[in-house]
C-alpha cells in the first residue's frame, strides 16, 4: 500500500464548478499528490465533472471504482449518490447514511482522509452554501493536516468558505486561481510535517465511529448514541432521535441510523418542514371543506334543506380558518444560521 502519496481533498457545493475548474487549471502536469473532489450534486443527475476538470487542466480526472489505488497527479471525483472515502493507499465508494442531506458528502471525505493520513492531508473548501465541509476541515486540522479556503469575497456562494474561516484555524486563504500554485508549493516543499495530532481520546473515538458509519457499518452497533448527549430533536430524514455532538466550536447532530447534520443544516431542514407541514394541514382542511359541501349537496337533493345548511355552514367555518394556515405556509422562510447572522448585521 502506498500510504506515502500526499492527499489533497477538495469540497464544494453551489458555484463550485467554476472554482474547481480554476483550481485544476493551476495544477502542474506532474502534481505530486492525489486530488479527491466532492461536489454536492443530485443523486439522480449524471455528473460531467470529470470531463470538465480534465479539460480545465493537465491532470486526468475520473470517477473511481471502489478499491482503486491512489496515484499522484490524478483527480478522483465522487460519483453521484456515493460517498468517496480515503483508505490506506486507495479509495472506496459507499452508500452510507447521508450527511447534511448529501451523498457524496464533503465531511465524509475529509474525515476519512484525516483518519487515514493525518498530517499528510490538505483540506480545501471552495464555494458553497451553508457550512458543509467545515466539520471535516476541523478534523483535518485536529489531526495535524493543513486547511486551505477560497477567499469568500470571490466565491460565487461565500457561506462555506466564510463559515470555515469563522470556525476553523485556517492556514491559507487564496483565490481559486491562486490555489493550484499554493497547493503545489505546499506539497513539494513541506508536505510531511511532524505528527501534530491534538485530538483527545473522545475525539478519536468519535472519528472512529463516524468513519465506520460512512463505510456502511451500523451506526447503532458502533455506538453513535454515546457520541454526545440526547436531544429532544428528531432526524428530518428518518424521524429517529438525534444525539447532540459538541465538536470544538461546532454543534452537530446524528441519529441512531447514522444521518448527520450540522446545526445550520438542521435548522434549515426544520424551517423547511414548517412550510411543508402547513401545506399538509391546509390540504387536509380543504379536503374537509370539499367533503362537507358534498354532504350538504346530498342532503339538499334528498329534500332535507335544514340539514344541508348545517353542512354548508360548517364548510364555511372551516374554510375561514384556513386563512391563517395559508398565511403561515406562504410567509415561512427557510432559515439558516448564516441567513440570521446576515440579517442581524444588516439591521
UniProtKB/TrEMBL annotation:
InterPro entries: CheB_C, Chemotax_prot-Glu_Me-esterase, Sig_transdc_resp-reg_Me-estase. It is an enzyme of class 3 (hydrolase). The active site is at residues 13, 40, 132. Its EC number is 3.1.1.61. Residues 1-190 form the CheB-type methylesterase domain. It comes from the Bacteria. This is protein-glutamate methylesterase. It catalyses: [protein]-L-glutamate 5-O-methyl ester + H2O = L-glutamyl-[protein] + methanol + H(+). Keywords: Chemotaxis, Hydrolase. Pfam families: CheB_methylest.
